[in-house]
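Practice set, problem 2.
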Amino acid sequence: MPWFVKIERGIVDKATFDQYVPAHRAYVRSLIEAGHQARTGYWAERGGGMLLFHADSRKAAEEIVARDPLIQHGCVDYELHEWCIVEAPD
């Protein structure tokens, strides 16, 4: 099931945040290589972004999120959500 993380930059300064972005990008590449079909995107004007990936359960999703360098170093606040597809009524 797809899961996504809504990321909002935390209280760290921009230099600290920027320090961990390369490690975050490398981590996303490792998710893709592991078959999680990860995608990420940012909106710089608000200091936020999203990481979308596949996980089999909430626990697996939490483990993926916990290894993200931006989260490990307190650079971002985040919310974890399951991607739900809602079909419109006929």
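Problem 2, part (b): a different protein.
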Amino acid sequence: MSHGPSLPIDIAGIQHLLPHRYPFLLVDRVLEFERDRRVLCYKNVSANEHFFQGHFPGNPVMPGVLVIEALAQAGGVLSHLSKEVDCTGRLSYLVKVDKAKFSRMVVPGDRLELEVEIRRAIRNMTLYAGSARVDGQEVACAEILCAEVQG
């Protein structure tokens, strides 16, 4: 009988689950996991992030599309952990984003909490509902549809 992964999952464990690497790996740690249901991860937003150089000089803000990408990556972590099989060679592609809403800017020093739930899974497609928070306040949310294919 499987009891699930040992939590928290650090960056080495996340790199085993996702194909993303620097500078595009946007999940630093997995804190909570409920098989086929939800995951809670976080991303430490550092002043050294490459995107802050141009977004925006003197007023650094994490691009909203990267917050959505971080939620999608957390969804990938949830799906891969739920399958309990080796997902090496499998890639998830973003198919659709709906109901995206941005409530507050994400800036250097923030810890971006990424909570994602599976709404529906059909064949190779999974619909996620994601919420990103900083200090308990929602900064963004979206419904995200991803398709998994052999890479």
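Answer key, part (b): Helices lie at 11-17, 64-83. The chain is about 20% helix and 40% strand.
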